[in-house]
């Protein structure tokens, strides 16, 4: 199966969109296009260990990490389920308040691939991620959940 984006290379990266527990769409990408869209490092098996959350702690509350995100320029940030969900809500709040037009464009696209590869959305997302993390840290301090972050 060829990559849905470049239509040249064999697809080895498969992204499934799940809505309400039902798979809506699966996008098949090659290694290069998949890496460019997701920001994940190459999926070379020797590098997969860096993606593991085993033994990692949440950056916000110190609980065992549930998930994480590779950062541009190296390194990663990890979060527990609760902090990850709160981060996602903050990120969505920022998107809706700062760029409601992205939400409208997202509704107009029939494909996750077309929407997620929008250069304006990617640029905004790169700036909004650290902002959302800072807001999460401030909220945790303000409500007394974390005095150290």
Itemize the secondary structure elements and their pairings.
Elements: E1 13-19, E2 22-29, H1 31-38, E3 67-70, E4 76-79, H2 81-98, H3 100-108, H4 112-116, H5 119-142
Antiparallel strand pairs: 1-2, 3-4
Helix pairs in contact: 2-3, 2-5
What's the domain count? 2
Note the gap between the termini. Answer: 46 Å
Summed over residues and divided by their number, the pLDDT gives a mean of 77
Q: Can you give the helix content as a percent range?
A: 40-55%
- Identify the strand order in the major beta sheet: 1-2
What's the total count of β strands? 4
Would you list the SSEs in sequence order as H and E?
Answer: EEHEEHHHH
Radius of gyration, rounded?
A: 17 Å
* Global shape: globular
What does this entry look like structurally?
With 149 residues, the protein is of the alpha+beta class. It is built from five helices and four strands, in the order ββαββαααα. It has helices at 31-38, 81-98, 100-108, 112-116, 119-142, and strands spanning 13-19, 22-29, 67-70, 76-79. A hairpin with a 2-residue loop joins strand 1 (13-19) and strand 2 (22-29). Helix 2 packs across helix 3 and helix 2 (81-98) packs across helix 5. The N and C termini lie far apart (46 Å). The model has no long low-confidence stretch (mean pLDDT 77).
């Amino acid at each position: 199966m060829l990559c849905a984006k470049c239509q040249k290379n064999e697809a080895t990266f498969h992204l499934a969109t799940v809505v309400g527990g039902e798979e809506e769409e699966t996008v098949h990408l090659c290694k290069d296009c998949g890496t460019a869209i997701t920001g994940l490092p190459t999926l070379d098996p020797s590098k997969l260990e860096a993606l593991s959350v085993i033994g990692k702690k949440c950056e916000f509350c110190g609980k065992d990490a549930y998930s994480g995100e590779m950062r541009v320029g190296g390194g990663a940030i990890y979060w527990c389920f609760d902090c990850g969900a709160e981060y996602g809500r903050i990120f969505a709040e920022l998107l809706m308040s700062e760029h409601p037009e992205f939400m409208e464009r997202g509704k107009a696209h029939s494909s996750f691939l077309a929407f997620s590869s929008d250069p304006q959305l990617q640029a905004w997302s790169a700036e909004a991620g650290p902002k959302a993390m800072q807001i999460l840290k401030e909220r945790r301090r303000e409500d007394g959940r974390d005095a150290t972050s």
